[in-house]
Input
Amino acid sequence: MMKLILLLFLFPHAMMADFDYRIENTNLSISQDSVIYNYDRLRFRGDYFQNNFFSTIIVDGVNYYGQKYINSKEFTLIQSIESDTPFLTASNFYNYDNGSAYSKIYRAYIGYEDAKNRVVFGLQNITMGVGRIWNPTNLFNPKNIYALEPDEVFGVFGVSYTRHINDTSHITVVASQKADDSFKYGARYKSYMSFVDIGFSLISSNQTKMLGYEIEGNLLDTGMEFRSEGAYIKNELKDFFQGIVGVDYGFVNGVTLVAEVLYSSENFSYQEILENLNSEIVSNLVQANFYTALSLSYSFNIFLDGSVLYIDSFDDKNSRFISPSLTYTLDDYNSFMIGAMVGDLKSRYYFKYLLSF
Output
């Protein structure tokens, strides 16, 4: 991995590449089940680019502070989860009085792009699907909507290639290496047909086979954006289908509504999910067959934004989840957020401060 990092810096430099960098510090003060702790992440991002070549590296320093939390079962679980890559992307946790810290490589890749082609090699993010809340077809970098930062996910180590066939269609192929040195392969074709974008995807590994579809487009002349994606998944645990249907609509008063429904032909117990946290399909392991989600967001002015997300499975236990938040953007460098994540099993309240420069 150190050789890859060295390549990321020296290769563009040898070509007299331009260099941009950004430093961000994300600080979260969290109250959870009568336990108060602090999470802090210092992130450095560097981007080289020259003509059609580019490279990016993102590294983090992470610190948890709060004696009760670092001695909890949840934190022990966090320490045990590793990226599914042939090398470790994070250091060991360093424990000190009342706290614990570690460092990690979040992204590190090089690439080339022109009008028809894009190829990326390294620790990267693979996007698939059209879901806003759930992504059943994305078995590479699925997000976790129940996390404080849903898009903060492990990178995939491999190569991805996208070929733009014409102005309305493209194909992407992916080959990634896993922690056991086996490979996961993926392919996705997407094209605009009549009035919708339609895509098909395939993923194959030693443990999993997936066949998926995705559709998105405007719903007649209503101004609504319709989307759907679904996946038939054949895995060591179970074979099942999972799919979503969603709509987005922006009202004239500035309110944006997102509605999404998830159906899964199989559900999994809480114990099964805990036992398979390192599974390729952990994001598809749901506790109910049916979920609905509603998200509302509104910009009060250029500084203040509010949003609320509500999810319900209409089950007897662990069925409801609500997450309201309010964000104040002071300037290009400082923003503040207060929010809550309230569920049937546990609740979290937080204050977030983001500093970037």
Observations:
- The chain has four helices and 19 strands.
